[in-house]
Amino acid sequence: MSTAPTREPAWQHPTHAEHYRSHAEEFDACKIGMWLFLTTEVLLFAGLFCAYAIFRMKYPTAFSNGSHYLNSNIGMLNTIILLVSSYTMASCIRYAQLNEQRKLRFSLLFTIACGAAFILIKFLFEYMPKWAQGKRPGYLFEYPFATDPHEPLWWSVYYTTTGIHAAHVLIGMICIFFIYLGARRGKYGPGHYTGVEIVGLYWHLVDLIWIFLFPLLYLIH
Amino acid sequence: MTQAAAHPYHSYLAPRGGFWGVIWDWATTIDHKKIGVMYLFTILFMFFLGGLAAIAIRLELLEPVRVAADGTVTGQLFRVPGGDIAANNELYNRIFTLHGAIMVFMVIVPSIPASLGNFCLPIMLGAKDVAFPRINLLSWYIYAFGSLFAILAIIGGGVDTGWTFYTPYSTTSDPNHWRVVFMIMGVFILGFSSILTGLNFIVTVHKLRAPGMGWFDMPLFIWALYSSAIIQVLATPVIGITALLLTFERLFHVGIFDPSMGGDPVLFQHFFWFYSHPVVYIMILPGMGVITDIIAVHAHKKIFGYRAIAFASLGITAVSFLVWGHHMFASEGELAAAVFSALTFLVAIPTAVKVFNWIATLYKGSISIDTPMCYALAFLFLFSIGGLTGLPLGTLATDLHLHDSYFVVAHFHYVMMGGTIIAFIGGIHHWWPKMFGKMYNETGGLIGCALVFIGFNITFFTQFILGANGMPRRYATYLDKFQPYHDISTFGSWILLAGFLVHLAVFVHSLIAGKPAPRNPWGGLTLEWETQSPPDVHNFDHEPVVTHGPYDFDTVVPPYCDEADFPLPPDVGGAHH
Q1: pLDDT top residue among B568 and B186
Q2: What pairs with residue B438 in β-bridges?
Q3: What is the least distance, in Å, from the CA of A194 to any CA of chain B?
Q4: Tens digit of pLDDT for each residue in B74-94?
Q5: Distances in whole angstroms, Cα of residue B388 to Cα of each of B164, B237, B384
Q6: CA-to-CA distance for B380 and B295, rounded, in angstroms?
Q7: Chain A interface mutation, best of B137, B261, B332, B543, highest count of A Cβ atoms under 10 Å
Q8: In whole angstroms, what is the distance from residue B433 CA to residue B471 CA?
Q9: Are A73 and A121 in contact, with CB atoms under 8 Å apart?
Q10: Which of B452, B451, B450, B445 is nearest to B428 (CA)?
Q11: Which domains does chain A have, with CATH numbers?
Q12: Cα separation of B394 and A62, whole Å?
């Protein structure tokens, strides 16, 4: 067997780890693995949603006040940003399948940029001003105009849920960046796009969690 | 199965390179067999640490702390200058926390799946490796890293919260101290290791079974590992978020579990047990799987009710998520307690199905009384006691009397140690020849087994009596009337220790001077007995094709065995050959 010319992109000769029988089998295994991992993520957030539900039931006024403090326009903007990023992430798989390498690389970078915009908006327009006003979690709470004694707990729920979600956005961005590095080397194409697909799955889940957080925190009064 | 070897045999244990080469080879290996062996030794090391703490607990309880008329204090294990009783009690609290946390999170949870499971699962399926070998290695490093956090917390002085970390105690004890945070972060990190192992097993079972191996051709050990892997994946994230929230609570006082802020400590208990109840099935299911395989192979008899055992494993998995509230009868509402009590009894059904199937398998089997079989019999005996004493604890009226007493301690030691650890040691003996290519000394193994069995019963059966008479758990001292029972229990712990030391000696002796093991020392029919001992780097020299069920002892002569040693039943054997 002659060695392949160095210019030829790697995806044209998809290899698979030797304990699999075929590349397709490995692809399937990776997808099942990722779906299982997503299940663990759902259960991780389930704990937070459960805490939210219980405290909302116990202290409806504090939670109603809390959602009034949040700016739903900023929340909406961030929702749109994440939805767009999910679209570009989904396109990445399509571009890999169609071998449109430039569009693939651009979409990956665009998705990362959306994630960065989400986090920046969250920090600059939500966390920082609210923290400065004393709207902080638990014992750090110093907001002088609170009308319900349990508002600190609302902020605890707000900061932990959105904070852990933001950490997931950050991890997703790092993963997509590694996929981008692979894409630059011509790793992905019609014959092989496992990495793009499984990181895409992760990104959609991060998006989905926000889709639940947004109405629960911002819209329900 | 006599086929020409496709490539020369390279034992997976054969050293590659010099001293540092071997270290590097093991540290970077993605071979599931080596990772399983690495897990085995780290888990046994942690078992040793947790065991030392257990011996210390029993030593403290040999005598109650007494203050004589002249002020002299006796009965303290930790002789604090001036006989300060509070300081002694505080040390006792740390030692039982250390024992509980190590044994639960670092020994029993990973024990069978991560060591024996990692080693056996791909070979039993006829695969070359688990689905994600790199993630498998990563899970070992995460395990080591998480254990390191816990060990640092212990070296730094220990934690006195108990292994359950109940709030508000865990958020207020040791003000501003980092040790509780380290311990909790250790649990958080260990959770990832558990999730990754479970995830790997599920995908491997789905995708990498050998040609000809359908779901109902899998060994029942695999069914058990699969069922417990589902729990590992579904339950562990909840302890993850609980640990994270507890850390936030400790570091930033966010108030989610703090009643003074409107938070709810009972919410912590729900979160904690939503993981920690299913986790007892992560612990016991693989143990049941090991016992199923040991009983079938060492009784040379087709397993009774294969499908019933397989579905019982899945049934236990399903029920495991519905019963967490039975740990909280004293802190939840009456209706919830009644519902959880009713659901708890459901667990008894699939469990009893398994026990009866094991006994039915033994009936008219040709039983070899060797160490694995003796451990299987010990398991049947101890696990049945453990299981049946769970019923009075699941019954509301009796639980109110027994709650937080030594009865509970005895119950879960009978299931966790009498179940999982006994199955673990039995399984180590069963697969030892395959893992290391050496036989162990059978007499030594049997002596160890007898000592462990006797010592275990002396140690823990007395605790049922103590608990029923009202001795509460987690105290460094007790009323004088309990002393005879505590003394018997402590003597038992020494016999138990002696048993484990005998096993240690047997293992070391086997590694140094054991006789070389044949491929199939027990006459098993599952795939791991068709490969070399120790297995080839690639597990098999050819991709195995499965042509018979894992327990067809009535129709198949075990591969690489003499038919004279394993005769087929006269009425069936002739016709099929």
Answers
A1: B186
A2: B516
A3: 14
A4: 887 776 666 678 888 888 999
A5: 24, 30, 6
A6: 10
A7: B261
A8: 44
A9: no
A10: B445
A11: 21-219 (1.20.120.80)
A12: 38
